[in-house]
Amino acid sequence: MRNTDTGSLTLYGETFNSRLLLGTALYPSPQVMADSIAASGTEIVTLSLRRQNLNPDSPQQQQADVFWQHIRSSGCRLLPNTAGCRTPKEAINLAEMSREVFETHWLKLEVIGDDYNLQPCPFGLVEAAAELIRRGFAVLPYTTDDLVLAQKLLDVGCQVLMPWGAPIGTGQGLLNRYNLRTLRERLPDVPLIVDAGIGAPSQAAEAMEMGFDAVLLNTAVAKASNPVLMARAFGAAVEAGHDAWRAGLMEKAQTASPSTPTLGQPFWHQS
Question: Which domains does the chain have, with CATH numbers?
Answer without folding.
Answer: 9-247 (3.20.20.70)
